[in-house]
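Before going further, learn to read the protein records used in this course. A complete example follows; check for yourself that the lines match position by position.
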Amino acid sequence: MALKQFLAQKLEQRLSPQQIQLMKLLQVPTMELDQRIKQELEENPALEEGLEASEEDSFEEEYENDSSEEVEEFDLSDYFDDDTSEYKTQSNNNSKDDEERVIPLSGESSFQERMTEQLHLLDLTDDQFMVADTIIGNLDESGYLNREIDALVDDLAFSANVITTDEEVEKVLSLVQELDPAGIGARNLRECLLLQINRIQDGNISRFTAKKILENHFEEFIKKHYEKIQKKFEISDEDLKDAIDEILRLNPKPGGSMREAARNHQEIIPDFEIVENEGKLELTLNGRNAPELKVNKDYEKMLRTYSEGGKTSKSDKDAVMFVKQKLDGAKWFIDAIKQRQNTLLSTMQAIMMYQKEYFLTGDETNLKPMILKDIAEIVDLDISTVSRVANSKYVITSQGTFALKYFFSESLSTNSGEEVSTREVKKILSEAIDNESKSKPLTDEKLTALLKEKGYNIARRTVAKYREQLNIPVARLRKEL
């Protein structure tokens, strides 16, 4: 078959660089926006912070970009501003008296560093110290050792040139398990709890019983088959309860507390604030979302000099093209920041009005069913755009600080045909479980019957799904003595 050439036209829809930049900025929360702006300021010398004397709002209107390689093909006058105005995105959301809060960051030593410091207090040989250090380096966030002993032996041989045996690693591991906090270096939950309870054996009969339960009846304990345990030990209900209480006081994640203390904590900075004033809701955007940015005037002067001088050498053209690209980038970035502000405000305004009753009363049952499509139709934006706005954004209200995702929920029909939020159903479930008798917790079937009595037509499997979303275990695991 012969090859043929032919011309064809086709229509494609592609995102412009400005649209791509806006999409990326929309999903950035307030704290990360600061870093993003700093990065752009470092990379683009044509972009500056601050304001000049003029209070005009903008440069000339954006020119029609030409992809031609000839410098003369674009109009340099589009980059000049004889009125000395500048691009700026100033916002008056905050007064001059508003307090600028500094985000506190903790600078404590890491989990591994604290454990290694304790190693220096032990009388170890160089090889033993290397083994212990390797063990500590392989502890997970909860303080458990999830690597097999033979795998550690291989690691030491290949990476540290330390030839050892399984028995020697086990010996060093037992020394690591004596470090603080108790339970560190355990290979499973049972060993972790036993390491802790062995340190506090003081003749107390309840602790002794608790130890025997962990040693011989751990499976019955985690499945809460208390009747079997009671029958094995032939003890009273009160004695069993005391032993179980001793186990529950132990820490199942001993490494978690140390890691939390060593981790840098950063407070949430709300992107919006909603204030109720005489029955009316007022929305403001965090001032950090409205930075003061402008185009560098020096770069404009460079283009003006070229325009007046009429230089045509290749080096001059290359220099002008570089300046043009930087000015384009500065203008696009400032425009994207301004569009981000407008999109954030319009989207949050729609959410606020949609959930007006909740923001006025603070009653969670007043939250209406709301999905991304509902807000997208109100603000006339794509669902993906609304999703980017709702992602990682927070609002502070009189009821507290909430992620925007909190206000989105699916709908559920009652027996009367009324559409209610699934969040309302979850709240009723949570309250019912909080008020249940812990000795006889409510099963999913009973919870389903309770909801149907209240007029919510819901299946048992849906109740189970909502319970799991609330991180509430099944009835058997909620049982207490």
The first helix runs from residue 17 to 26. The first strand starts at residue 47 and ends at 49. Residues 53-73, 83-91, 95-107, 261-265 have pLDDT under 50 and may be disordered. The chain is about 50% helix and 5% strand.
